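Support request, priority: normal
Reporter: lab tech (M.K.)
Component: structure prediction queue

Hi team, I submitted a job for Olfactory receptor from Otolemur garnettii yesterday, and the status page still shows it as pending. I've pasted the exact input below so you can check whether something in the sequence is tripping the parser. The sequence length should be 332 residues. Please let me know if I need to resubmit or if it's stuck on your end.
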Amino acid sequence: MEGDQGHHFLMLLCIASPKGDGMGTFNRTRVTEFIFLGLTNNWMLEILFFNAFSVTYVLILLGNMLIVITIIFTPRLHTPMYFFLSNLSFIDICHSSVTVPKMLKDLLSERKTIPFDNCIAQLFFLHLFACAEIFLLTIMAYDRYAAICTPLHYPNVMNMRVCLELVFAFWIGATVHSLVQTFLTIRLPYCGPNIINSYFCDVPPVIKLACTDTYLTGVLIVSNSGTISLTCFLALVTSYMVILVSLRKKSAKGRRKALSTCSAHFMVVALFFGPCIFIYTRPDTSFSMDKVISVFYTVVTPLLNPLIYTLRNEEVKSAMKQLRTWKEKEPR
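Reply from support: The job had stalled in the queue. We restarted it manually and it finished. Here are the results:
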């Protein structure tokens, strides 16, 4: 805020803070930017990380866009499973794009800063796409359960209308979750330290910088994020356990196909939910390996998803080959 009224209002916020220090609080102003400590202070490692993550980000974009394009232009892949897979690839592109470009820029910068408003925007979209992926992976598990355990009813249970309704529902749910997280963060006064021990803005490291007691806010945030992560993870595990039990009645060929699909899904679930549960179920606690865990679910997992779903899926690989052949035969 630039006006006198806004300045006085923010000073009052700081004065009211339990963490204030008497008259010294009058010299504090509202934080206008945050400073990232980044992944490392070693410039040689920063150059190494920049090269590695640049290649990784390009592969994330190319790999996930290839899956989306292949599914769109291959009629036989217009099924619920591949419809959800194309949505997963789209979310992975968005999820990685929230943090990776800024991280790459900061790896080449001596001073790693982000304006307050941009930090809040990054936080909002990070939780939006992460929560959307959690809900989508849960829906994909239910889709596999319906296809394997109730194959006769599957066309009615999971038709395209239902798929669209589920996609609309999980985007609404993800938006509500992200708005709650953002509101709980911006309602706090920030008038003291502005150094974030990370390479992106997330709720846990940001609220630690608030000049007030954040214990209750931390509990509310963990209750929100932790409950969603744990509930969806338990639902996923339950779905896959039921599927495994039902496979005993299938033929050997049917078991192999179902296990191949479900194992790919479960690998993605473990790679994504593990870091999320580790980070968002610990109120007001941080570990030295948090940055490594964060890199894993913001950079590595979006890269592994297309590899897992293409290298282990003959239908997708076949469709990609046909698409490439069709493209080569197309008259120029």
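The mean pLDDT is 81. The longest helix spans residues 116-149. Let us know if anything else looks off. Ticket resolved.
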